[in-house]
């Protein structure tokens, strides 16, 4: 069966510090991968998605970036965090050519920027 | 572009009350429709889905029917429990755009009081 992991689970970082969040998927190949951000009490904002290694599409311009160095690994990064980067970051995957396109979510990383 | 609209929350109900959370959508293609649930501090879990008109998705006592004529996918449960307290997200996946076009509504927070 497929599983998705995210780490760390929680992170507290000062403004201006770098960021690296990691997401890995097990039990599937060639998945679509997604990064979402959920601000406190808000809905989901799609940040990035990837349909293959090295292929990243950005939905919202910001100081974040994403990379996919391996088929089942998706990394969210920043060189300098802003206060507004605080939130709950969710990674998700879906089958590449599955018609129903159901997305499966990881447990999330709660980031607090001070 | 595609969009999902949900009723504004929070929704507060007493245990055993009837629940309806409205969801309507706009889409360019013929979307699949989903309800996800997010318990406090966790990622999103798929609650139910429907892939074509008049399909009824159901799970854990929750139901939603894909109504193409009214572009709606309202979530219902006949008798809610305290454990149903969570945020509920309506979402669509547009088959016209595999993988990339998965749109979430803003979420509706449900609180069930004993």
Looking at this protein, list some descriptive labels.
heterodimer, A: 114 residues, mainly beta, four-stranded antiparallel sheet, B: 114 residues, six-stranded mixed sheet, globular
Molecular structure report:
The complex is a heterodimer of chains A (114) and B (114). By secondary structure, chain A is mainly β. Chain A is 0% helix and 57% strand. Chain A has no helices and eleven strands. In chain A, the strands form two sheets. In chain A, strands 2, 4, 5, 6, 9, 10 and 11 form a seven-stranded mixed beta sheet that branches. In chain A, strands 1-3-8-7 form a four-stranded antiparallel beta sheet, with no helix packed on it. Chain A starts with a strand and ends with a strand. In chain A, 38% of the residues are buried. Chain B is an all-beta fold. Chain B has no helices and twelve strands. Chain B has strands spanning 3-6, 11-14, 19-21, 23-26, 32-38, 44-50, 56-59, 62-65, 75-77, 86-93, 102-104, 108-113. In chain B, the strands form three sheets. In chain B, strands 2, 5, 6, 10, 11 and 12 form a six-stranded mixed beta sheet that branches. Chain B has a four-stranded antiparallel beta sheet with strand order 3-9-8-7, with no helix packed on it. A two-stranded antiparallel sheet of chain B has the order 1-4. In chain B, a hairpin with a 5-residue loop joins β5 and β6. The model of chain B has no long low-confidence stretch (mean pLDDT 91). Chain A binds chain B through residues 32, 34, 41-44, 46, 49, 51, 57, 90, 92, 94, 96-97, 99-108, 110, and chain B through 32, 34, 36, 41-46, 49, 51, 89, 91, 93, 95, 98-100, 102, 104-107, 109.
